[in-house]
Design a protein that fits this description.
This protein is mainly alpha-helical. 16% of the residues lie in helices and 5% in strands. GO terms for molecular function: flavin adenine dinucleotide binding; oxidoreductase activity, acting on CH-OH group of donors.
Length: 112
């Protein structure tokens, strides 16, 4: 991203952090091993995910329309996924212990 020649600008990032879409597809394009595969990540392939993304964009428009957002801020949080004890995904258990480690808890804003 580049800054405009004049005036102000804002960068807003949105994401569906708990998508219901699960349709990843990797298909061979041909029998030639040097051809790139056809990849379909299946993003926004459910009504819930589309609704969530549209609502997120509307929320960003609402939030950024008010003057307090005229400044700069950073909010680096939510990088460690919490999952049930018996799940094979996520890195943090519901009691905030780190999966696969003993005696270590995650106690900051990185857990989501």
């Amino acid at each position: 991203l580049t800054q405009p020649a004049e005036g102000s600008f804002l960068t807003a990032l949105t994401a569906v952090v708990s998508p219901t879409s699960r349709a990843w597809k990797w298909i061979l394009a041909s029998s030639n091993p040097f051809d790139n595969p056809l990849i379909d990540p299946g993003c926004l392939s459910t009504e819930f995910d589309i609704f969530t993304m549209v609502q997120t964009i509307k929320d960003v428009q609402t939030f950024t329309a008010v003057s307090p957002w005229a400044g700069t801020f950073s909010h680096p949080v939510g990088t460690a996924a919490m999952s049930p004890f018996d799940a094979n995904w996520g890195v943090v258990n519901p009691d905030l212990t780190l999966k696969g480690a003993k005696g270590l808890r995650i106690v900051d804003a990185s857990v989501f």
